Amino acid sequence: MVILGTKTDAPKTRGPDDSRGYRVFRVVNTVVLIGVVVVTLYPFLNIVARSLSEEAYIIAGKVTIVPRGFDLTAYKLLMSDALFWTNYRNTVVYTVVATLISIVLTTCYAYVLSKPQLKGRTFLIGVALFTMFFSGGLIPNYVLVTSLGMKNTIWAVVVPNAISVFNLLVMKAFFESLPSELEEAAAVDGLNTYGTLLRIVLPLSKAIIATMVLFYAVSFWNSWFTAFLYIDRQDLLPVTVYLRNLIAGATDAQQSGAAAADVVQAAATLQAVTIVLTTLPILAVYPFVQRYFVRGVMLGAVKG
Amino acid sequence: MLHKTWRRVAIATAGLLALSLTTACSEDPGESTDLSENRVGAMASYGIGDQFKATEALSFSTLYNNHTFYPLKEDWLFWSELTKRTNVKIEPVAVPLSDYEQKRSLLIGAGDAPLIIPKTYHPQENAFVSSGAILPVSDYLDLMPNLKDKIAKWNLQPEIDNLRQSDGKFYLLPGVHEKPTQDYTVLVRTDIMEELKLAVPKTWDELYTVLKAMKAKYPNVYPYSDLFSKPNPTGALLNILGSAHGTQAGWDYQHATWDPTAKKFTYTGASEQYKQMVTYLHKLVAEGLLDPESFTQTDDQARQKLANGKSFVVTGNAQTLVNNHRPDLAKTLPNAKMAKIPLPIGPAGEINPFPRLENGIMISSKARESKNFVAMMQFIDWLWYSDAGLEFARWGVEGTTFTTDASGKRTLNPGVDFLGLNPKAPKHLQKDFGFQNGVFAYGGSPDLVRGFFSPEELEFQKVMDARKPRVVPPPAPLTDEEREQVSLWETPLKDFVTQNTLKFALGQRPLSEWDAYVAELKAKNSDQYIELVNKAYERFQKDNG
Fold first, then answer.
1. Keyword Isomerase on this protein (chain B) (predicted)?
2. Do B78 and B165 share a domain, yes or no?
């Protein structure tokens, strides 16, 4: 919606653009974008509606975006499951800690890489880039994490993917775009490297840091694979694995017609409820960070 | 003098030859015979029907498939009672059910696998055999008297032999059933049959006449509109129809079918039986008896058609009948009645196609070095294969979760719910006690496997029990190289067969083109495939026969 707003505001300030062609473009643009909004919003609203509906209506395929046979039992059921809350808490803790670690490491790495006078800079960039294209593979990674004694601890989740190379490069480009005169002035005034970073560069980088926080937080919130690999205790798993298992469990029972067929009964609503509850927090964070979001990425992208 | 030496040499040679011959014929003893270092905690004499109890407290790590419906709880009666009875503690390595197989591969590959690896479906174990990470359990069957007893008593040797690898050993301890328990069959609206004065069809041909009569009375209806179009179209119907025709189709599609008269394997999709099956299917579609949408529609669509009287027959089992179709019909057509009919009989005769082995247990090779190895095998034998262990895993503890009457019939205690038998009960057999757990309860005698079946379902099983089990094909284990080669051929072949089964059934390809289809299969290496399997079969016969 914000994007739509800026588009329509623009012509008022720029007279010549207010031609017939541009007006046609605006109409088409608005229609297309509203179409996109509908297409992206529909599945989400459908899930919300399902989560509030009675099982029978879902099975019959009668639920679209309005809940049918309003029913909160699935919410009550899920909220009474202690494991769900344990895993939910884990997700929050993992996301916060992992984002913190990632931001610190990425900022430090990116700042160093943005300095042309650094010796071995190309090598350090190469090291980072190499991991973008090649990985050691699942089993060696597993053996590494296990032999470091990180299995079944929070560190197995928050450390292995701490630096995303893509984010690192975006951040590096942003730091490079900062005028070097600022740092020179800071040095003249007696700040050392760390002082420059903390007092001059970081305050100017709020936009990019907010963006990175968003990127990292969303990816850690949604991730399940690392936790699945390195954690064997269900009370340490994040809620994403819980959700995944719930959905798989339902389909499994359906296919095999297994003895646990009562799973299927609650499943359709329960899945929807779990999805709603796991997406809500990240949805709530998004609007607040989003205003930095466009600015941050753009700033990094256009150099000089 | 010279003469004497000659004679000595001859005798020595003959002796050597005889010796080498006898060793060649006996099971390769290898390193496996000496278990004296591995007996810590084991019972000195452990036999059929004995209660296993370790002589000292032991614990074994076990891969645990964590089910959503009954997530692992540490305070389950199952754990405490198991330790009380056997002096063994199981240390579960809990893996979410959604990705159990991936984690299992990872753990085995990384050398970090637990000692006991349950819930493995044959032939999943093949992937781990060549790495040596899992134990050839066939070498240690002597430690498992109950399993050996069940194999002998229930005539499971052919099934067990089918698990063997190219080295003649097997690497999976399967769940063993005394009787096959077929659950999928045809579900029919019995009120429509009564209305039309039709008898319950016994064969597929009789089912055809029933459908025909339904169509005559209700010309706007496709009487048979099936579910299960995924993952392969009408997998369930093809499965039961295939077995009735003596072939394997749908969910159960296998590339090689054993021909007992010719004593060799033939390619399934090119066989005469398969053609007969496809012809039958085509007849149903062509005469408007089977809904062509059966091959593509979602399960929900098929359910709705049935619920709204737009179809009368579907494929299904007791669960889909009781949990889905009957409640659906009760809402929309209160007078409708629906029931399972005994699996219709086809040209293959009265057979019960359900396999008698189910998923089983792999043992990590590391276990062999453990000083508690023997105790562990005895423990596995008790929990998974002894009568007491099987009952314990399914029903729990007598007096607490169930009671047994004079005739030996078990009843769930009123305070315990399972499958909605005591819906008001405060506790659940799986969720709160940890019994009927898919990780620990498999196989057994019918009274255990079918303990919770409804009278209606038991009646169905009684009819099915009178039928012969399907002939088990002899083992034809491939070597690693062959397996790699074969896997390159399998996917295109299977896709081609599925595609053409549909085309023939729907009439998009006339059945007169069958020979052309077989030729196209050959172009996709079906001949080489079968040749390889037959070669493997002969090699196995020669080496182990």
1. no
2. yes
